[in-house]
Amino acid sequence: MSSLNLDDFSDLIERPDGSVRRDAEERRERLTVAPGALGRLDELGEWLSAAQQSAVVKPVERPRVLLFAGDHGVAELGVSGRAASGAHELVRAALDGVSPLSILARRAGVPVRIVDAGLDCDPGLLPEEITRHRVRRGSGRIDVTDALTAEEAERAVRLGMRIADEEADSGTDLVVLGDLSVGGTTPAATLIAALCGTDASVVTGRGGAGIDDLAWMRKCAAIRDALRRARPVLGDQLELLATVGGADIAAMTGFLLQCAVRRMPVILDGVVSAASALVAQRAAFRAPDWWLAGQLSGEPAQAKALDRMALNPLLDQGVTVGEGTGAFLALPLVQAAAALAAELPERDRPDDQDDQDDLPDQQDAGGESEDADTTESAE
């Protein structure tokens, strides 16, 4: 019996401060730039204000990219454009600074942290600070067996919670969340289909690496079979993650929940982070108020999950590479919204305005007095 109950997060997570947001909206009305002229940046600024509990937004100065890495046994079926057990190569590319995300992050001066939750490789291939968190070596083939044991699922969720606490304690003020996985879109689509009550064909996409029609059919069949195994355990989020999730997905779920507890905003990337978020929402309905959807990845499952959570993506640039790239592209928008909300001045209100407004009345009063005097003299 697990000692962790994800439903407990429902009591721990509060919404961003609504009264502060109203104060921020009123302040926005007084700024020199007309309300609505900045489009969605106004909305983002007000959201950040509520999250920060400050009517005057503080700039986002210490963002961090968090990537959870893992391999999924279902990739053995040829459902991915990458070779099974090859996620460590994605990690290596990020470490070497040659992945799209690492290039963008380096140019922007944003640190990237990679956490190995379930890579299927020799730990010696990667630095110890990455592999020391590993829950298990690869996740199970979800169409025929569980992704994780119950104990492993709990360990993975607690890993994500611990990472969230470390980031919050270190002063991180916003997280860009992504994954480095091979086969991860298949369990992600399975979780979303199960939680949204839809069929495999509705959520099956072609993944970040792209797959042909035959691979798509294999992927659809794998999701269909995994869904049969997922539906009986829908009432228990931890058991659901163990059955058809994976170590990286479970860790991301714990991370997102604890980020909401710690009031730390998160930008979601693609379908894997969306699936983790949907599981987290099932446990704590207020949690999505702390997240932004960075982009539309083109995966049908992601669109369905975001719609269920009422998250409107910031970007739709056709970026399918994954690995946190699309969400990172949305970071400058959020930073811009914070900077404008923090630094735009309010309109001047001269101190003597009220006196000027009263002046005509005083003149009228004076005029009446003179008329009265004149009349008395005439009499």
Per DSSP E runs of 2 or more residues, the count of β-strands stands at 5
Distance between the amino and carboxyl termini: 105 Å
The secondary-structure element order is HHHEHHEHHEHHHHHEHEHHH
> Proportion of β residues?
5-15%
Task: Quote the average pLDDT.
Answer: 90
Instruction: Please name the CATH architecture of the largest domain.
Output: 3-Layer(aba) Sandwich
Taking pLDDT < 50 over at least 5 consecutive residues as the criterion, the unreliable ranges are 362-379
What does this structure look like?
By secondary structure, the chain is of the alpha/beta class. It has two domains: 63-341, Rossmann fold (3-Layer(aba) Sandwich); 353-379. 52% of the residues lie in helices and 8% in strands. The chain has 16 helices and five strands. It has helices at residues 9-12, 18-29, 40-52, 87-95, 100-108, 128-131, 150-169, 185-196, 200-203, 213-230, 237-244, 247-261, 271-283, 300-309, 325-343, 353-378; strands at 63-71, 112-118, 174-182, 266-268, 291-293. A five-stranded parallel sheet has the order 2-1-3-4-5, with helices on both faces. Strand 4 (266-268), helix 13 (271-283) and strand 5 form a beta-alpha-beta unit. Helix 3 (40-52) packs across helix 15, helix 8 (185-196) runs parallel beside helix 13 and helix 12 (247-261) crosses helix 13 (271-283). The protein is globular. 51% of the residues are buried. The model is unreliable at 362-379 (pLDDT under 50).
